[in-house]
Amino acid sequence: MSTQTIPTSSPLPDYLASATPNPPANRAPWYTNTAPTFAGVFLWFVFWNSISGSGLSVGGLLSSLVGVVIGALICHFLFYLAPGLLGMKTGLPLYVVGTSTFGAIGGLIMPGFLMGALQFGWLGVNAYGSADALRQGFGGDQNMFYALAVVWAVLAAFVGLKGIQYVAKVATFLPVIPLAVLIIGLALYGGSAFDYKPGVVVEGANGSLTSIFTIIAFIVGFFGTAGAAGVDFGTNSRDARDVKMGGIVGVIIAIVVTAGISLIVVAGARASGAIPETENLMTAALKVKLSDSFYKVVMIGLTLASFPGACFSSFIAANSFKTVMPKINPIVSVGVGTLVSIILAVTGIAGNLAGVFGIIGASFGPICGAMTADYLLNGNRWSGPRAGFNPAGWIAWAVGFFVGVMPALHEVVPAIPSIPAAPVAAYVVGFVLYGLLYQLGLKTAVLDMPQRIDV
Asked: Where, by residue number, does the polypeptide cross the bilayer (predicted)?
């Protein structure tokens, strides 16, 4: 397929023609926006509370910590950095910047609609984890869990549609709660952590590698959508240094601190006999040492701290749907998405974090990979929107997504191999394949966008 030739005077779709770059004068330092926002994502207890079960029992604490560090570096350098720089240089949001990779029409679906749709998966995970934590905090039964999950999802969706500005003001202070909980856990169990021995004996280096790859897959899968959303964070960055520092502090350091402490706490609790080898949750270790009343306060506090995240998911979904489906009332589209979130929560599907993160990583790994390749191939800049559906982007994504879901397919069809660290493999496939197809000419022509800027 040869490059399609389209006159630069060809009209842009309405959503691109009306896109307005965020001017440099409206931007702020990294420590006021990108870093604290990303750090708040990783302080969410649903992320760090269960990460220990992803590899600690097989490879031990040291291997798991190595996996955390490598996963943090991958998130920053592969998934976040190029999207962040694209946002900084253009001042334009993800659904606009993504059109250089997937086309002016294709960009409405990918990453536009996909980003919005997956937010309801996040809302389901948030509702599940928050309802379960509140149930423990109030000492309720399963019926309470169901009711809380429904109320939590509906309330978050409503606030995301109507009152997100008020939540944003409170969200600045709420991350102090999970940070304090992590410090308490470290003080209680940190001393015995390195006495822990893995409960599953695996010969040679296989145990360590399994542990490292499993931790990486968990972290990168969790970060997938946030990495692509680095474009939106980048629109508020003044220069490349803001983008890089925001990622170093808000992504690398935040991951190492939150996931690392949780692993240390669970390892220490297992080594001291406070919890059995089969227990993966850091909050379960805290329950052993804390008084019943204080533990309930902790669980309620962690839940309250996660509410802004649920609201922001709804807010992002609503904005995405308003862009890609402007004729549909957002109350209807968000309402349908919220119903899906509730179903995921009450059925427990959202509680399978490894599976959820695997799908997210498979979806956004090749998106981030293809966008990074496109950025590099165009001289570290944004080419501008491409016409229609850009074949290089769509083919790269489809193949990368298949690679990313191979572990899930392996469970159904054992003949399909299970790829280690599948979200990373999906990124690599998306990156390499986009580069090859781009060089072969499987790309549509660039459309003129007069209002674009280049910082």
From this structure: 30-48, 60-82, 94-123, 143-161, 173-192, 212-233, 245-273, 293-318, 330-350, 356-377, 389-409, 421-442
